[in-house]
Amino acid sequence: MNKRITPGAMGYIIINVVVFVAMFLRDPSLSSQTMIDFGAKTNFQIADGKLWYLMTPMFLHGSILHLFFNSMAIYFFGPYVELFFGTKKFILISLLTGIFSSLGSFIFSDAISLGASGVIYGYLAFHIYLLLLNREIYLRTFGKEVFVLIAFNILYSFLAANIDLAGHLFGFIGGLAVYFLVGRKLPQRFPQRLLAVVFIIILVAGGATRALAYRNSVDYYIRKLNYYYLKEDLERYLPLAEEFLTRFPEYIP
Question: What's the whole-model pTM score?
Answer without folding.
Answer: 0.91
